[in-house]
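Lecture 7 notes: from sequence to structure.

We start with a single chain of 286 residues. Read the sequence below before looking at the structure.
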Amino acid sequence: MSTDSVTPFAFESLPVRGALIHMRRSWRRMQRDHDYDALFTEVLGHAAAATALIAQSLKFDGAITMQIQGSGALQMLVMQCTSDLDMRGMAAPREGTTAENFVELTADSHCAITVDAGEQPYQGIVAIDGESLSSSLESYFQRSVQVPSHVVLVANDEMAAGILLQQMPGEPIEADDWRRLKFLAQTLGTGDFDGNAGIELIGKLFAEDDVRVYSSRPVNFRCRCSSQKAEDVLKMLGEDESRAALEEQGGIEVICEYCGRRRHFDAVDVTRIFVENVVSGPDSVQ
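Now the structure, written as tokens:
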């Protein structure tokens, strides 16, 4: 089994379903063109694991976007995951600010989770009011989705992982059992993901329970940037601004903030772009 995967499971005797995620290759690729410090790396890794866990828990065809914005050292974080578990994400620091912990990093922040399945997108918003992204997401599930959930997330520069446990709608569970599952999930650490983590780790965590483990699904880093979207950025900038940049710099470079790909435009390119009459707006953050 690939380490970059989500493994869903369900308890035979408890009305609880769950999923375990473990990313290495895709997570390292997501960081490749950035220079995040340890705190930014951890929080972005938590967001990556959480977004994929949410995506796999839903039956939809589209994409989920998690976006965090606030006035702390983290100016913006965006993580996107499709229903096929293709992922990309980035975080932007606020210039001139530093943070020693999650609270300072996400001061006055809110987290928006948007599910776009091709029709009217659904968005849930929750304040980042705890000491971790996990606790904020548990509030999101409780308030916006009405599904009691336990979320545990771990990350460093080598791996991003986590577990999601959710009560089945309309099926009560004893409070002691629910607290016990939370305690077991919270024992997860980065060391538990040194090798392949799937059915063996689930069995180890919940050794006292009968758990049915389903087939793992692969997780991949895949950016959706394109030449057309880069051209759309110039169209949004406008012809006058684009030509001024050309005159000043001799060329224009558009860099994708997700994958780091650089696309270069010269005077011929800019002329071609603005001769066209049809302007299509971008469908992703560049």
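Residues 277-286 have pLDDT under 50 and may be disordered. Keep this in mind for problem set 3.
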